[in-house]
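Entry 14. Ran structure prediction on the chain below.
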Amino acid sequence: MKKIGILFGKERSFPEAFVKRVNEIDGNDFKAEAVSIDKIFQAEPLDYAVIIDRISQGVPFYRAAMKNAAISGTAVINNPFWWSADEKFFNNALAEKLGIPVPKTALLPSYEQPEDTSDESFSNLAFPLDWEGIFNYIGFPAYMKPFDGGGWKDVYKLNDKEDFFDKHSQTKQTVMMLQEEIIFDEYFRCYCIGGKHVHIMQYEPRNPFHLRYVVDTPPSSQKLLQTIHDYVIKLNQYLGYDFNTVEFAVRDGIPYAIDFCNPAPDADIASVGKENFDWVVENSAKYAIERAKAHNEGLDNLTWGEYIKTSAAGLPLIEKSIAKN
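Output, structure tokens:
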């Protein structure tokens, strides 16, 4: 009997429901359980065909353990090698290359020098930066946020350049990005499972946390929803994420991808609501079983995105994208 594990932290509602649902669907052939680790030896597998990883981004020991499990044949969801390399600024650059609208964004060096560096470490960095060029490109109001994610932590709304310099001085060694504000008419958050199953949820980030999925007005059009659906599929297939969320802010009928580097997205019933919770439990359970059925003992069972495949084949990203669509 193949085992499907879930690795998690303090969350409870999703892991427990996921384990229960997998065992209800196909408990005769597959057993789902919380991952149990009592030792990790190099190149020795864990006893799981599939592991849903919900926590290793914040626990280096778990991240190393998931890479060791992956190289030993476990299908880790999401791919821990790609997840370790990815960040939000790269996501934006990839989306732009794929023709998916994103806010104008600039990468900023950290306000303070990283530890164990000096002025000589930055011989290639102009001082001062072309701040006026950056501000003219982005415009104000704008948002400043960590380039590699972290939810809403250390996110600043900025009204002008004086506000920028004041807030940037508080960011210490964190590398930030400055991003155009999209004043939106509609906002959507979308689950994507397996690069093919999409669940579009209306979302209002300006509401209190417990009310963000409570939206009274219906989506403006089915055409918009179809465009969002197609963008979600394309982004996740190119990034190679099996389990992710994508957020869109809609301005003048155009959906701008705001955030799509969430490989351990919120799936707690208290915040997403029962309907959305039931969808993500059902589809993640079925997808985990699908991956367990396709599992090849001792081989690479990870998902690798089209960006990696295109690069490995030496093909231009844009031409490959056009050819696939």
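Residues 274-293 form the longest helix (20 residues). Will compare against last week's run tomorrow.
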